[in-house]
From TrEMBL:
GO terms for biological process: DNA repair; DNA-templated DNA replication; error-prone translesion synthesis; SOS response. This is DNA polymerase IV. GO terms for molecular function: damaged DNA binding; DNA-directed DNA polymerase activity; magnesium ion binding. Residues 418-429 have a biased composition (Basic and acidic residues). Monomer. InterPro entries: DNA/RNA_pol_sf, DNA_pol_Y-fam_lit_finger_sf, DNA_pol_Y-fam_little_finger, DNA_polymerase-Y, DNApol_IV, Rev_trsase/Diguanyl_cyclase, UmuC. Binds 2 magnesium ions per subunit. Residues 7-189 form the UmuC domain. The gene is dinB. Poorly processive, error-prone DNA polymerase involved in untargeted mutagenesis. Copies undamaged DNA at stalled replication forks, which arise in vivo from mismatched or misaligned primer ends. These misaligned primers can be extended by PolIV. Exhibits no 3'-5' exonuclease (proofreading) activity. May be involved in translesional synthesis, in conjunction with the beta clamp from PolIII. GO terms for cellular component: cytosol. The record marks Y16 as: Substrate discrimination. It comes from Streptomyces griseoviridis.
């Protein structure tokens, strides 16, 4: 393991909710809940103000509404979050070629890779500067953890929340980890956590005390061995740049072609289990299950299925592989079979949430089929989803505050306006149309003087409006006085050059 705390982990604070607050001045400092608003919706995230009431990610929306009846409830705007994420990832790439994104709002960076940092002080400086740049470029806050390993860097950023930086001094890792719950460790999902608890193991110290043999007995060889090392704070996993294929797969070639369909099924199941063993040993989980089949005539095909969220559950991988196999013709015989998992992410509690959301989605699908009435609300939600952008021919840019009974209420405000006024329209008002999100931080082309900021009311020239996505814009958006909505991140180096945040 390295000696200096030069692995950085960044995680944005209350990401979706903060992006909503940055974009909607009237919601700053308020309880905001983002998620599915349909009858079976789940909370994606909540602002820190809403967390005070106990609202949490993955909670059923109905429960959130009971806990925080006065919060603003918004439907996610993924295009916006993705654009902000690209800006953040751009800043990270300016630090090092070794950036490993874990999700939209989170990544590891190896600061030693390009000499951005080499010891405590340089690492801390880079971390602080990064936080300043993120704030300037996106208007949002992110928390940074610095440590000599990925595991500790991630734990540190969690400790740093919100809006902070924590460095784990090399040598202090075990003392820090010891009292923490086993679920803190990568590789301990809900199922493993339960399993360990039944064996009387709840803290990392207890895990270490149990000893390697006991853990192997409890969890199997690869997993037990890996977890024991983590409990001792031994984590050598490198930061892996996203370019490098992130997948784990296993395959077997057979001396004699397999003709028996049942035997093919058994082999696929066995491969799925082996693949999961590898996943767990690597402390990762993945979303896409891949089946590879080479037939008697050497024709090879792969089939894949993407789940709602990452998994390392042998049952889930087995079932997906079996489903994929069903669609493959194996008459004539099979020479090779393989099972892989791609779309890897480090273990996080998100696994649990994703899985829970997946289960709910299935339920939802069934219920919609049975009760046609349930369809109505989501449909309406889609037309004027709460929180989504609109443009009115006279009043300009705003967002849907609510809709129902043929009316839609819009608040007219933009990221750099004052909190705006609310007006109600008929849902079929021809002057009202859906719009694209505005950038959270106004981009002022360096040559132009800042445009006057039009508070509420009909917005002035800076309402860049309906520009689809960010795509084509490369680097400088200085071409026109109408700023691109989401310019590709400016180079991290000129940090602070961006206009002030809210
Ligand atoms: P997180 O980083 O886990 O959470 P967060 O950024 O909202 O809050 P924190 O300050 O604690 O980091 O997740 C990032 C985003 O991913 C989150 O804003 C919304 C989305 N998300 C879901 O959609 N479902 C989930 O279950 C979780 C955990 C997150
Ligand atoms: Mg976050
Ligand atoms: Mg995150």
């Amino acid at each position: 393991m390295r000696k200096a705390p030069t692995i950085l982990h960044l995680d944005m604070d209350a990401f979706y909710a903060s992006a909503e607050q940055a974009s909607k001045p009237s919601l700053r400092g308020k309880a905001v809940v983002v998620g599915g608003l349909g009858p079976r919706g789940v909370v994606a995230t909540a602002s820190y103000e809403a967390r005070v009431f106990g609202v949490r990610s993955a909670m059923p929306m109905a429960q959130a509404r009971r806990l925080a009846p006065n919060a603003a409830y918004l439907v996610p705007r993924f295009a916006l979050y993705k654009s902000v994420s690209e800006q953040v990832m751009g800043l990270l790439h300016a630090l090092s070629p070794l950036v490993e994104p874990l999700s939209l709002d989170e990544a590891f960076v190896d600061l030693e890779a390009a000499g951005a940092a080499w010891d405590r002080d340089s690492a801390r400086r880079v971390g602080e500067r990064l936080r300043t740049e993120i704030r300037a470029v996106t208007g949002l806050t992110g928390s940074v953890g610095l440590a000599a390993s990925k595991m500790l860097a991630k734990i540190a950023s969690e400790e740093a929340k919100p809006d902070g930086l924590v460095m784990v001094e090399p040598g202090t890792e075990r003392a820090l980890l010891g009292p923490m719950p086993v679920r803190t460790l990568p590789g301990v999902g809900p199922a493993t956590g339960d399993h360990l608890r039944r064996a009387g193991i709840t803290t990392v110290d207890e895990l270490a005390e149990a000893g390697e043999d006991e853990l192997v007995r409890l969890l199997g060889k690869a997993h037990g061995h890996g977890l024991y090392a983590m409990a001792l704070a031994l984590d050598d996993r490198p930061v892996v740049a996203e370019r490098e294929a992130k997948s784990v797969s296993v395959e077997d070639t057979y001396d004699v072609d397999i003709h028996d369909r049942v035997r093919v099924g058994t082999e696929v199941r066995r491969l799925a289990d082996r693949c999961v063993g590898r996943l767990r040993a690597a402390g990762v989980s993945g979303r896409t299950i891949v089946l590879k089949v080479r037939r008697y005539d050497f024709s090879t095909l792969t089939r894949s299925e993407t789940l709602r969220g990452p998994t390392d559950d042998p049952g889930v991988v087995r079932e997906a592989a079996a489903r994929l196999l069903e669609a493959v013709d194996t008459t004539g015989g099979v020479r090779l079979l393989g099972v892989g998992v791609t779309g890897l992410a480090d273990y996080t509690q998100e696994d649990l949430f994703a899985q829970a959301a997946g289960e709910r989605a299935e339920l939802e699908a069934e219920e919609v089929a049975e009760t046609p009435l349930a369809r109505e609300e989501p449909a309406q939600e889609r037309r004027w989803p709460s929180g989504h952008d609109v443009r009115h021919a006279v009043f300009g840019h705003g967002w849907v505050q609510g809709s129902g009974l043929g009316r839609v209420t819009v608040r007219f405000e933009t990221p750099d306006s004052e909190p705006g006024r609310v007006r109600t329209f008929r849902t079929d008002d021809p002057e009202l149309e859906p719009a694209e999100p505005l950038p959270l931080v106004r981009v002022v082309p360096s040559s132009d003087p800042p445009a006057p900021s039009g508070p509420s009311g009909p917005p002035g020239p800076l309402t860049a409006s309906a520009h689809r996505g960010r795509g084509a814009v490369d680097g400088e958006a200085q071409v026109s006085s109408e700023p691109a909505i989401f310019p590709k991140s400016r180079s991290g180096k000129e940090g602070g050059a961006a206009p002030s945040s809210p």
